[in-house]
Design brief:
2 domains; 6 helices; rod-shaped
């Protein structure tokens, strides 16, 4: 029951405290976001070598992605060029169709003008026919009147059977009758006959003219019908051209859509390529820094080996007051972090601001007082104890020592805090041997 309760407490505490950097070169997500300049603590040689190796692999991967992006850009440009050529070809066809449509519209306009002209001629002919019919009707009336008058004169002469002009005059109704019954009467028959013949000739001519006009009208109507049939054919041809025009315009619009889509793809790929180039540059810079740090670590290791400095041969001390002993995270694999934890976390309640003590005598080699909230160790101290041993005290709220300062075991070096990647006040405590993280509990006894 006690063990189960302890495990529950330990799991709960892990949610409010965070571990720091993982072992064997495995970095947490938050650590990957930290600029290399912030991760300034002298990582172990194996860590730095792994970083360089990872950087080389990442650079190689990025270079391959850049190459792939370049190939994709070229492929998309080739496809875009293909669609551009299609656009040029279809535009040429559209121009030809537009020209044909314009020519056809001109033909249709000319045909409409011809039809209108013929229609005007038909209308004019119809007016002329109407005039002829009116003239014929008038002459018919004149002829009828003349015939009636001629009949009346003949009838009067027949009744009187006399050449007595007085009787003719007496029988006259008006001056016209007197005129007719005068000496002119001698030739009235001949005159009336000639007049009648002339009237008939005029009527016949008018009728012939009317027939000719009717024939002209029929011919004009036939001409109009022929023109209208030609107009229908032209309109049909124009509809076909309009359909071709619509087809090529739709095709052209589709090609433009494809062309523009490849332009967007190319732009996206070029942006991606630029981002990859930037990532490569950053990774190369990180690699160079890791390389420089590795060289410095090697140099310092060589110096330590040369000097073989030993600061303290006594036992290791608990890094905080003995009242604080709750371990919220142990050394090794941690399922919550999905990676290895490089030290132990001491996370009792009420620890904020508590003193942190040097676990053993040595020289302060790191006293980090600047940090980015939410990232990495925060404020931390590293002490070199000689014989290949170093200790790290992370997430401090205050630092009381400086680089180069020699401290004794139990000296107060910092205060507990929650700086860096930490969700609550605690001390992240690491021990390294020859640059390799080891379980602090293997050298430090829990009170």
């Amino acid at each position: 029951m006690t063990r189960k309760r302890s495990n529950i407490l330990r799991g709960a505490a892990a949610l409010i405290c965070c571990g720091a950097v993982l072992i064997s070169g495995v970095l947490t997500d938050s650590e990957r976001m930290i600029p290399a300049s912030v991760r300034s603590y002298a990582d172990t040689q194996s860590d730095l070598e792994q970083k360089i190796k990872d950087a080389d692999a990442k650079i190689k991967e990025i270079e391959q992605k850049i190459k792939d992006a370049g190939a994709d850009i070229e492929n998309n440009k080739e496809q875009q060029d293909n669609y551009f050529n299609k656009l040029v070809a279809t535009q040429e066809k559209i121009d030809l169709v537009n020209l044909s449509v314009a020519n056809k519209e001109a033909e249709i306009a000319d045909m409409e003008a011809q039809i209108n002209a013929v229609q005007l001629r038909i209308s004019d002919t119809e007016f002329r026919i109407a005039d002829k019919e009116a003239e014929i009707d008038m002459l018919d009336k004149q002829n009828k009147t003349n015939i009636d008058r001629f009949g009346q004169i003949i009838h009067a002469m027949y009744i009187t059977d006399s050449d007595d002009y007085l009787s003719v005059i007496a029988g006259s109704a008006d001056f016209y009758d007197i005129f007719i019954r005068s000496e002119i009467m001698k030739s009235v028959s001949e005159q009336n006959l000639n007049f009648a013949h002339q009237l008939m000739a005029d009527i016949e001519k008018l009728k012939d003219d009317e027939v000719q006009l009717e024939n002209d009208k029929k011919q004009l109507q036939n001409d109009k019908l022929t023109l209208e049939l030609q107009m229908d054919e032209l309109l049909g041809q124009k509809r076909e051209l309009d359909e071709q025009k619509k087809y090529y315009n739709d095709l052209n619009a589709g090609y433009w859509d494809e062309y523009n889509s490849y332009a967007v793809k190319i732009s996206d790929l070029e942006t991606r390529q630029a981002n990859l180039q930037y990532q490569k540059k950053v990774t190369q810079a990180d690699r160079e820094k890791a390389q420089a740090a590795l060289e410095e670590e090697i140099r310092r290791a060589q110096e330590r080996a040369k000097n073989n400095t030993v600061y303290d041969t006594g036992e290791w001390a608990w890094p905080v007051s003995t009242q604080f002993t709750l371990l919220t995270t142990l050394f090794g694999y941690d399922s919550w972090r999905k990676g290895n934890h490089g030290g132990i976390d001491i996370g009792n309640s009420g620890m904020m601001g508590a003193n942190i003590y040097a676990s053993k005598g040595g020289e302060v080699i790191v006293a980090k007082t600047t940090y980015i909230p939410g990232y990495d160790y925060g404020m931390y101290v590293v002490i070199d104890h000689g014989s290949g041993y170093q200790t790290l005290y992370a997430h401090c709220s205050a630092i009381y020592v400086s680089v180069g300062q020699v401290v004794n075991k139990g000296d107060c070096i910092a205060a507990v805090g929650a700086t860096g990647w930490a969700t609550g006040p605690h001390l992240h405590f690491e021990v390294r041997k020859d640059g390799v993280r080891i379980d602090p509990l293997s050298v430090v006894s829990k009170p």
